[in-house]
Amino acid sequence: MKEKNEKLISIDEVIERAKKLGVDFGKGDPRNRLRYYVKIGLLPHAKRKVFKNNLPEGAYPEDIVWKLFEIDRMIKAGKGILQIKREMEEREQKEREKVFVLPKIESKVFVKKKPKILFLKLLSLLFVIVFVVYFSTKFSFQKSVSYFLATMAKNFEKLVQAPIEVETKKEAFEFPETEPYLTINAETAIKGSLDVRDSVISPSFVIKGETYNATLATTPLTADRTYTFPDQSGIVCLSTGNCVGLAGEVLTSGGTTNRLAKFIGARRVADSSIQDFFSGISITISSEGRVGIGIENPQYPLHVQGRIQATGDICTDLGGGKCLSQLAPPSPPVAIGRGGIGGSGTPNYIPIWTSATTLGNSILSQIGSTLTLSGDLNITGLLVTSGLRIATTTQAGYILVSVDDQGNIVFAPPPPSLILPGTKFLRASIPIFKYSNPAQTASTSFVEVTNKISTTTLSKILPSTMANSQRKFALLMKFADNIPTTASSTWQIDFDNLPDYYFEFQGQNLSSLETGILHLQDEIQNLANDNWVLKVKVPINHYSLRVFSIYLLCYDQIQ
């Protein structure tokens, strides 16, 4: 019955109807998609039917269209093929387990009565019995009984085999046809609820009860219209294949392949200006907010793995705003960057350019805090130091410094004949002026020109006293004043505990204080025994004194 009423349509018509419902067959041949579904068991094998071309070809029942629509809906919902197959098999199993209850058919038996038939038969039987009894009195008893039993058996057989007429009445039952139960050709208002057990079909609207899907398939629908649906989850698809979830928050009218999306309004996205053709990971933003390009674990705010190529300038706000274009180009053949430099060296040696692009060992090496010079030291300028101490590892004792006829400094151990009592050996020269620039005063009261010099500081920076010598100090000062030669400037070494030490210098009576004159105050005692500070004053306030530098000289005098 089912096969008789089943309407078969061609495969082309199946594909055409499915596309109108929004089924997406992909970019290939839709027939290949159907073959794949048949191969994995989602669709049955096609049947054969002759259509207009008088040739047998593949055909499917009409409900295959809805099955394709259901498969496509599940795929768009993110379900896998195996999951779809399992759900559809479970649904078909439940359909097969449904029991169709047939209406009860009542059968009634009507007995047609024939009055007096049984009574007449019994009467004849009684007559036979009386006749036998009578006959038995006239003849032998054995023969009478035999005749009686035979007669009884014959009449009982006839009684049992007598026909009984029975009338039966059967109720006819017909299975429902597959045609629609109800066809509505006019406008109909349904005030109550509509329970769809199978499907409701019209030219523009289809509801299928099993999957709770609704399809709008009418041509009068225009573009860019708004359709309001209940706030439930599900999918709404247009005939072009574009679908949107009812519970979604973002809408789009389409996009361009490999273009990133951006919000162009509330809950609306469209193409951005960024293209992405890379199949792997190119840009990474870490949980700390660091951006990595070509690296998946950036360690800096912007971490680039590889070369940076810029067609324009690269600038920074550091240093008042500098750009790469403002840097002076290197003079050839100096190599920039990692390439172009060769050579090798020895650990702890300071490198030196042995050629335009090659580095090698110099004569300087450093191990810890010791710097070693393996060669001559030629100084074309001044050798400025706050303290100079020269020792030798080849000669015990101390060495002398002298100048030869060519002006070269010569270091040699002092000959015994030159070390005479009263010989002075300079041990240290320490700048102690308080200011970094020349300072001027016109005060008649003492003003400080040095910071306080402590015994702790001197003990740390001064060398130990030579044997058979006495430690002495001197002050070497460079200053200028306009004090008359008949007067003088007064200087004071202000000790914390010991008596203060005073000395004077005759006035220079200079017209300009731009250049100072050296003055030496020698053989000052106790400078290493107490804390002190150096002060100065002028005799009258309309005189001025300008200090350029002050050095504390430390020397040992042989006794």
Would you mind describing this structure in some detail?
- The chain is 19% helix and 30% strand.
- It has 559 residues and is of the alpha+beta class.
- Among the domains are: 2-97, Multidrug-efflux Transporter Regulator, Chain: A, Domain 2, CATH 1.10.1660; 109-168; 342-373, no CATH class; 417-558, Sandwich (Jelly Rolls), CATH 2.60.120.
- The strands form eleven sheets. Strands 25, 26, 28, 31 and 33 form a five-stranded antiparallel β-sheet that branches.
- Helix 2 crosses helix 4 and helix 6 packs antiparallel against helix 7 (141-160).
- The protein is rod-shaped and about 200 Å long.
- It starts with a helix and ends with a strand.
- The model is unreliable at 1-5, 170-179 and 334-338 (pLDDT under 50).
How many whole angstroms does the radius of gyration measure? 63 Å
DSSP strand (E) fraction?
Answer: 25-35%
Helix share, percent: 10-25%
Query: How would you classify the helix and strand content by structural class?
Result: alpha+beta
Provide the CATH topology of one domain: Jelly Rolls
Tell me, what's the shape? rod-shaped
Main sheet specs: 5 strands, antiparallel
